[in-house]
Structure formats: structure tokens, C-alpha cells
């Protein structure tokens, strides 16, 4: 069996050495490399909010709501431009 060198931050269970995710709850292990990408499997428009949610370990719906509210209160056009730029710059997975 692999040596245990750390505990999961979320469920406090032992995580095997070299694992990027907790085997019990699926949380990302501290120090595991993160990759920003658009989530095509969870997309509503281009997958930008789902990709940001995956990167920051948040719920995609929460990121979408926050983005929509921020877009509305900043005058809609800047938020739409930012979304299009992010959709063009962030690679899809």
C-alpha cells in the first residue's frame, strides 16, 4: 500500500502519496497543479463559468449567478465583452 503523507482538507481522511484528489470525497489535494480550462461538459454558453468554478473548487451555478449579477451591475456590456474574451483565451477541455 502507498505511503500516506497528508490528509484531505475537506474530509480529513488519509490521502495516498502522489494522489491529486481525495479518494473519498474527490476534493483536490493541496499542492496538486490546477489547470484553467473551459468545461465543455457543463457548459451553458461556452463553459467559462464552469471552468472557473472547477479551477476555484466552487459550484458552477454560484459562479454563474455571481457573474450575471456583476455583469448586470457594471452595465452589461463590460461583462459580455469579458465573457467573450475569456471564451476565446481559455482553452477548452
What does the average pLDDT come to?
86
Unreliable stretches covering 5 or more consecutive residues: none
Overall shape: elongated
Compressed to H and E, one letter per element, the order equals EEHHH
Structural class computed from helices and strand pairing: mainly alpha
Number of strand elements: 2
In whole angstroms, how far apart are the ends? 32 Å
Described by strand count, sense and barrel closure, the largest sheet is: 2 strands, antiparallel
Account of the 3D structure:
The protein has 93 residues and is mainly α. The protein folds into two domains: 1-32, no CATH class; 40-89, no CATH class. The protein has three helices and two strands. It has helices spanning 48-56, 60-73, 77-89, and strands at 4-7, 14-16. Strands 1-2 form a two-stranded antiparallel sheet. It starts with a strand and ends with a helix. The mean pLDDT is 86.
Keywords:
93 residues; mainly alpha; 2 domains; 2 strands
Gist of the model:
This protein has helices at 48-56, 60-73, 77-89; strands at residues 4-7, 14-16. It is mainly alpha-helical and 93 residues long. The protein has two domains: 1-32, no CATH class; 40-89, no CATH class.
Topology summary:
Blueprint: E1 4-7, E2 14-16, H1 48-56, H2 60-73, H3 77-89
Antiparallel strand pairs: 1-2
Helix pairs in contact: 1-2, 2-3
Amino acid at each position: 500500500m502507498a505511503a500516506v503523507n497528508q490528509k484531505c482538507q475537506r474530509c480529513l481522511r488519509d490521502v495516498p502519496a502522489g494522489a491529486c484528489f481525495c479518494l473519498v470525497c474527490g476534493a483536490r489535494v493541496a499542492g496538486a497543479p490546477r489547470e484553467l480550462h473551459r468545461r465543455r461538459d457543463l457548459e451553458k454558453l461556452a463553459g467559462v463559468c464552469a471552468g472557473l468554478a472547477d479551477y476555484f473548487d466552487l459550484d458552477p451555478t454560484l459562479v454563474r449567478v455571481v457573474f450575471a449579477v456583476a455583469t448586470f451591475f457594471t452595465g452589461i456590456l463590460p461583462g459580455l465583452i469579458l465573457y467573450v474574451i475569456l471564451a476565446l483565451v481559455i482553452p477548452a477541455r
